[in-house]
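User: Predict the complex with 1,3-dihydroxyacetonephosphate.
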Amino acid sequence: MRNRFVAGNWKMNLSDSESKSLAEKIASHSYTENTQVVLCTPFLYLKEVLEATSGNTKVAVGAQNCHEKEAGAYTGEVSAAQLASAGIPYVILGHSERRTYYKEDNALLKSKTDEALAQGLHVIFCCGEVLEEREANKQAQVVETQLQEALGHLSTDQMSKVVIAYEPVWAIGTGKTASAAQAQDMHEMIRNWVANQFGAEHAEQQIILYGGSCKPGNAAELFAQKDVDGGLIGGASLKAEDFIQIIEA
Ligand code: 13P
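Assistant: Here is the predicted structure with 1,3-dihydroxyacetonephosphate placed in the model:
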């Protein structure tokens, strides 16, 4: 039985005091034994969110990106080694906003994944197709290429520290959610890819999240799908009540 996993991606939102208060509200709730919650905050707030959630063993903290090098003259960047040294266990890599706005390609994401895993972090690796690719019915091919090029070389041991998040780009922040059937189709395809690469036993354990306009009103139906193990939540993770409702779902 796979654990349930819900991560909030705060993106570039919230002030310092809002972050602390949101983290405290989320950490004050109790979650079932098989649930993992991760709050992915701006770098600036990681330590205080870590502190604010330290009393709740079900709530962990993650960054939204890291650099592919261990250290050096990379102004404005943060390394996986720095995250690890600060006690941050998770990092999101390959989010479509990073792919689009900062031109992160599969080769770079492969390097970032290697570096994050080498530093002992868990990676929440995002994949997903854009609208034109969905309209051309190329979603499976696109996502498989993203996974193959960035994760295909990993060992099974390394892969056990990777959570995959399927986020159709046309559903992110648009209010348009993939239907439960569309999500299940893609998650099944992803689990099959994992089985081919890492074996059936590993594939059974692989956590695969859905992301894209996931809300209290649609979370239960999405999470009820056989291959959907939880969600990566953007907008709705900024309101404690909504986010907790999604986790409860
Ligand atoms: P929304 O939930 O706001 O659509 O964002 C999804 C997302 O990008 C999570 O990483």
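The domain at 4-248 is CATH 3.20.20.70 (TIM Barrel).
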